[in-house]
Amino acid sequence: MKILISADMEGATGVTWPADVLPGTPQWERCRPMFTSDVNAAVTGFLEGGADEVLINEAHWTMRNLLLERLDDRAQMLTGRHKSLSMVEGVQHGDVDGIAFVGYHTGAGAEGVLAHTYLANSLTGVWVDGTRASEGLLNALVVAEYGVPVVLVTGDDRTCEDAKGYAPQARTVAVKDYVSRYAAVCRTPARTARDIHAAAREAAELAVRHEPVTAGPHEVALEFDAEHLAGAATVVPGVEQTGERRVAYTAPTMYEGIRCFKAVTTVVSSAVEKQYG
Predict the structure, then answer these.
(1) 19-59 per-position pLDDT tens digit
(2) Cβ atoms of 175 and 139 closer than 8 Å
(3) Whole-number Å distance between alpha carbons of 149 and 245
(4) How far is CA 126 from each of CA 116, 136, 201, 248, 264, rounded to the nearest angstrom?
């Protein structure tokens, strides 16, 4: 049994505000060990639950945040940017039996600690086939095309609630309770490690590959906080402006859908001005 862990940071233990996840800040350095602790707890739980192999894919910002020297040495880590499937890189090789979303968060425009979808700001909403989409939903649709189930999700309590929509069978662990986008009631690292470990051990039983899901084509819509960003997004082939601040495109598969989404967010981020967005 092989488990892939997609490790994001906004939903990690103790994280509540931007500096906690911004590479290079003192707060980021302080939160890196707690993030690593969450991932280690999942690794240990999965191995105790019967997994033979665990691969961790760094999924936050520069994708160089976890402390390799503190990881369980039975695991391996894929670190760094510019990966074909970004946050779920590794799922496409046909040897992954289950995936865990560790340190995840809710999507742009939703309640949740540091809620966003790919871009920290600028995007106010993303929808797939009419359903508001978090990064969890987007990535769940991608891995489903490879027959891989989402078996564990950790983050704040709103993230766990969101996961019920895209992975109702998955085990969930709330490491903090949402108060505002920048505030939460947090559990200690010792407690969250125990909770994640126990959930991962149970989740290993759910790691059974199924037939690939081919649910496309998918209609993807994005809404921005400024009209010029919608115009910028239309540079990407197939993306059309559907409103003053909205664009949409159709993708035959979610593999192509997520790659187009990455292209759109890259173009849009380059069109954001520092002071006025």
Answers:
(1) 999 999 999 999 999 999 999 999 999 999 999 999 999 99
(2) no
(3) 34
(4) 10, 12, 33, 10, 12
